[in-house]
Recover the amino acids of this structure.
């Protein structure tokens, strides 16, 4: 059996935390569903000082963090989206509800505020024991403390459907439980669902109906990871829910901080279903027990797009209170810069290919960079006079 989550270790964890075991994306554990337990989380005030041990002990990871003064630190993934341009206009994604279907989110982390959590696994673990993946994903979306996510004002809803290792619960059919969580999140009124998980061996019977219910009946944007199975052969890498037309399928790229170039991430799946891409290489984010960790994977690119979608939705709602899922999907695909695909990768139409989809999600017409991979960041020329 192999786990469902789509990330693997890059850098060092902050000291005091146990070693992280690398995982792949395939497999599932089919084990009888009981009723999930929902808990309303009491709001807390996040700490203001970054626990910078990862920075101090791993210089390569440090080059992927950008100091932003009192606003906190941001990683390259956040910086490259141009999220700060939205923040400076007062848009942090506030009021947008995002469900994270994953291994669970440590709501005690000082950088995270979780509105509500629902536990389908029910294995008796506390949130500090949930494993890294779900908390890391949540931080990319909406960390709002010493580290800042893309939509720090968004509301996080934690739907725990996997064990710390990325397996299904020890009761019931894994994909039926995940499908029920999709329906429950949609019924709860969330705007966006993030699913950094996937099945590569077969199409789960119950999943497509749940996705269609969320998208078509409840107006939810469902953002999913494309998967990490690509090799040097130009083959189609099947993964569900990434292969459904109703979802936003996200591929991963590597953003080079030294020159602003965007290169293909060697692991990111390619198919006609890829809609957009985001940075999924050496991404620093939150992990349980107040820590931070650098991970690779389409699991990390996926929440970057979910977070940016929250910014777009908040902005659109300032003009009109009702924004459809289709409208948000169109805005998201329009908020990209084209990346030429390497030779041999098929293209569906002009500007859309199997590796990058419509392109890299960002507010910039060209990506910022920092000289020699360190030092101050240089904004695109059209922003030379913009506030730091």
């Amino acid at each position: 059996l192999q786990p469902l989550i789509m990330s693997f270790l890059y850098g060092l964890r902050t000291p005091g935390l146990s070693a992280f075991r690398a995982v792949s994306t395939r497999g599932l554990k089919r084990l009888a569903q009981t009723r999930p337990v929902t808990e309303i989380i009491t709001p807390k005030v996040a700490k203001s000082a970054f626990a910078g041990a990862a920075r101090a002990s791993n210089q390569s990871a440090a080059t992927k963090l950008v100091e932003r003064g009192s606003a906190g630190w941001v990683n390259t993934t956040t910086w490259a989206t141009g999220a700060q341009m939205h923040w400076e206009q007062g848009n942090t994604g506030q009021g947008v509800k995002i469900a994270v279907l994953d291994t669970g989110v440590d709501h005690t982390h000082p950088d995270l505020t979780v509105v509500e959590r629902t536990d389908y696994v029910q294995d008796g673990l506390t949130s500090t024991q949930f494993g890294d993946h779900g908390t890391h994903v949540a931080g990319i979306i909406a960390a709002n403390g010493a580290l800042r996510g893309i939509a720090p004002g968004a509301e996080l809803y934690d739907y725990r459907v996997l064990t710390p290792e990325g397996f299904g619960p020890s009761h019931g059919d894994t994909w039926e439980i995940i499908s029920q969580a999709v329906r429950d999140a949609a019924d709860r009124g969330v705007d966006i669902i993030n699913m950094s998980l996937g099945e590569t061996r077969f199409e789960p019977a119950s999943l497509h109906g749940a996705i269609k219910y969320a998208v078509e009946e409840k107006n939810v944007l469902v953002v999913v990871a494309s998967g990490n199975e690509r090799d040097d052969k130009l083959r189609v890498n099947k993964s569900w829910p990434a292969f459904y037309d109703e979802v936003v399928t996200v591929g991963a790229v590597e953003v080079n901080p030294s020159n602003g170039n965007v290169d293909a991430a060697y692991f990111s799946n390619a198919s006609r279903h890829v809609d957009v891409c985001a940075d999924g290489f050496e991404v620093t984010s939150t992990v349980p027990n107040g820590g931070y960790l650098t991970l690779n994977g389409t699991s990390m690119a996926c929440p970057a797009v979910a977070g940016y979608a929250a910014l777009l939705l908040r902005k659109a709602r300032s003009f009109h209170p009702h924004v459809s899922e289709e409208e948000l999907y169109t805005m998201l695909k329009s908020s990209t810069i084209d990346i030429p695909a390497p030779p041999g990768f098929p293209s569906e139409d002009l500007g859309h290919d199997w590796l990058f989809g419509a392109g890299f999600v960002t507010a910039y017409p060209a990506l910022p960079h920092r000289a020699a991979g360190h030092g101050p960041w240089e904004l695109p020329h059209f922003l030379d006079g913009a506030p730091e």
